[in-house]
């Protein structure tokens, strides 16, 4: 399998720039991308659960799995073991292919998109962001209701500064903080 465009970018350019900028011997890398969605009110609707699974699979290019409730919650009418969402973990080639489509196709389709919040790092070098409507992905066919999606970019960076540098070099459109 040949390397994707972003894999080649990382291998040929980003590694060199990270070594120079961060002055480290082993630069961080993108380890995996996790897509996660909760079903909210549609937990009891099996047909809707199947539609969400199909769309998550289409968006990621990999079969999605159910996330199950760990404990019962009477307020939400949920029992232990019931499917309450779905997720996909992308690695290697599929991860880079998804990242390329996400940065170049999906983000420009988000209405009123101003950029990504640079404060959404977790302190351990991982970046998580949410999309309020799953339908911005061209592969999606969800027309019933808006469904949110959380995307986590897991890196091998030890801190947020290194992770920010890595993702910036992949051309993540972070919002520039105003000085002064």
Radius of gyration: 18 Å
Q: Find the CATH topology.
A: 50s Ribosomal Protein L5, Chain: A
Order of strands, main sheet, comes to 2-3-1-5-4
The number of helical elements comes to 4
Largest sheet: 5 strands, antiparallel
Share of β-strand residues: 15-25%
| Helical proportion, percent range | 25-40%
Low-confidence stretches: none
Class from secondary-structure proportions: alpha+beta
- Average pLDDT number: 78
Q: What's the CATH first level?
A: Alpha Beta
Shape estimate? elongated
Q: Domains counted in the coordinates: how many? A: 1
Separation, N- and C-terminal Cα atoms: 49 Å
Total count of strands: 5
H/E element sequence: HEHEEHEEH
* Name given to the CATH homologous superfamily: Ribosomal protein L5
Word description of this protein:
The protein is an alpha+beta fold and 180 residues long. The chain has a single domain (5-169), classed as Ribosomal protein L5 (50s Ribosomal Protein L5, Chain: A, 2-Layer Sandwich). The protein contains four helices and five strands. It has helices spanning 5-22, 46-60, 92-109, 160-169; strands at 30-38, 65-68, 83-90, 127-131, 149-155. A five-stranded antiparallel sheet has the order 2-3-1-5-4. Helix 1 (5-22) crosses helix 4. The longest helix has 18 residues, at 5-22. The chain starts with a helix and ends in an 11-residue tail after the last helix. The relative contact order is 0.21.
